[in-house]
Design goal:
- By secondary structure, the chain is α/β, with parallel strands linked by helices.
- The strands form 4 sheets. It has a 5-stranded parallel sheet with strand order 2-1-3-4-5. A 5-stranded antiparallel sheet has the order 11-10-9-13-12. It has a 3-stranded antiparallel sheet with strand order 6-7-8, covered by helices on one side.
- A hairpin with a 2-residue loop joins strand 15 and strand 16.
- The longest helix is centred in the middle third of the chain and has 16 residues.
- It is globular.
- The relative contact order is 0.09.
Length: about 240
């Protein structure tokens, strides 16, 4: 995987660079001292993974992510925890706190590699048949059938999604959440957050801005809440 480091701190870049050199599937292409330099570089080069600091002069790492029309896989690295919620709403692969241990680094890059290897995965469903009861997830040359009624919820991961099913399986697929909405053509699913598409039949409880599937909480976006209550046939 071709990667770059974006950090205004020389020592921090050196530390991450040393860890990258120990991972066979990572190929460090460039080091950027600022988000603006990274922005210009990413416009010209094909990069799979970015190790990105958050707090930098002129532009933060978060702001850089928001300004990228096409995003590589991103691992945020920072000294502070308070950006974590916003970071994961932007679908970063992982969020590391400095100083980063090699063990924690490996967890993050393994996750990034998993996403990268799913790049050719697709979801296929008959567009003309809006009542189709299943979809197929394609991974390389293998097609896996998923019954739509078994889908509990779908989580956005940038240009990918995680599809969670009732048999406790997770399928990572190269498609956006909006793309999944269009493919499913199913009124039983509802977008309750910019990161979540949920099967209404699997919602057990709603408490303020949180929907629960069993004991698993999913955030409800404020702009979706009113419509969700209508969909739930509230009495």
């Amino acid at each position: 995987m071709n990667c770059i480091i974006v950090d205004d701190n020389t020592m921090a870049r050196t530390a991450i660079k040393q860890m990258i050199t120990q991972v066979d599937f990572l190929n460090l292409k460039h080091e950027c001292e600022s988000p603006i330099e990274a922005f210009n570089y990413l416009k010209k080069e094909n990069i799979d993974l970015v190790f990105l600091d958050v707090e930098m002069p002129e532009m933060t790492g978060i702001e850089l992510i928001k300004n990228l029309s096409t995003r590589p896989i991103i691992i945020l690295i920072t000294t502070k925890k308070e950006y974590a919620v916003e970071a994961f709403e932007l679908n970063v692969a992982d969020y590391l706190i400095k100083p980063v241990s090699m063990q924690r680094f490996m967890v993050a890059v393994d996750r990034a590699k998993e996403l990268f290897e799913k790049k050719d995965n697709k979801v296929e469903v008959g567009d003309k048949d809006k009542d189709r009861e299943y979809i197929f997830v394609r991974s390389n040359s293998v097609l896996t059938k998923i019954k739509i009624k078994e889908i509990i919820y779908i989580q956005a991961l940038g240009d990918y999604v995680n599809i969670f099913t009732s048999d406790n399986k997770r399928h990572t697929v190269h498609i956006t959440l909006k793309g999944m909405e269009e493919k499913l053509h199913n009124s039983k699913f509802f977008r309750l957050h910019r990161s979540y598409l949920v099967a209404l039949d699997h919602i057990d409880n709603v408490e303020e801005n949180t929907a629960y599937i069993g004991k698993h909480p999913l955030s409800i976006g404020e702009q979706y809440k009113k419509e969700l209550l209508k969909k739930l046939n509230l009495i």
